[in-house]
Design a protein that fits this description.
The chain is 60% helix and 4% strand. The protein is mainly α. It has a two-stranded antiparallel ribbon. Strand 1 and strand 2 form a beta hairpin. Helix 3 runs antiparallel to helix 5, helix 3 runs parallel beside helix 6 and helix 5 crosses helix 7.
Length: 192
């Protein structure tokens, strides 16, 4: 909301998978055979359709200046987004298997929380540990990687609230997420 963009969220999954039953209509309406969720429609830009997470992050990053201050930073931010997307995909794979298998001792959920998650988040935590920046890339500027990290951290903690007890890097990243949330709130209050 701090970008002052007018937007409206529409939950296409709200009514028992209406997206699946209406997908052919969406494809026809937007002339896009690659339509998946999430998707974004910019009505102020000839109903431009942007579909799937990474293209949406790139679109919003370009539109609202969340992709860095120069080309080098932009490509590092995009690489961080890609790494976070891989982590999300591994998380989703863990969730979409039978619970008995996923949560078995030494099963996929344990592998995810004890190996995949710490390994994927270590470079992000290292970025903050050195104290050079408040956010992943800058002191004064949020990026799409910050937003994606915030979303994933919230998702992981909703799934497994005790994750902070298990990993020091998660504590560092969570403190960064809380600081980002506070900065966003301050920005919104100052903009009013």
């Amino acid at each position: 909301d701090h970008s002052n963009a007018a937007w409206q969220e529409i939950d296409v999954w709200k009514e028992s998978g209406a997206f699946r039953t209406n997908k052919a209509e969406y494809i026809k309406k937007f002339n896009n055979n690659f339509l998946i969720t999430p998707f974004l429609v910019d009505e102020n830009n000839d109903n431009l359709l942007v579909t799937s997470t990474l293209p949406i992050l790139i679109y919003l990053g370009e539109k609202f200046d969340y992709l860095g201050k120069n080309a080098l930073d932009k490509y590092q931010i995009l690489a961080a987004n890609d790494k976070l997307n891989d982590l999300r995909e591994n998380f989703v794979k863990t969730l979409f298997m039978p619970a008995k298998k996923a949560f078995a001792e030494n099963g996929p959920a344990e592998t995810f929380t004890k190996k995949m998650l710490p390994g994927a988040l270590k470079p992000l935590a290292d970025q903050l540990k050195d104290g050079k920046t408040k956010f992943l890339f800058y002191n004064d500027k949020l990026t799409t990687a910050d937003f994606y990290l915030f979303y994933l951290m919230q998702t992981f903690f909703n799934w497994k609230p005790d994750l902070l007890e298990e990993n020091e890097d998660l504590i560092i990243l969570n403190c960064g997420v809380l600081e980002k949330k506070s900065k966003l709130r301050n920005y919104e209050q100052n903009a009013l």
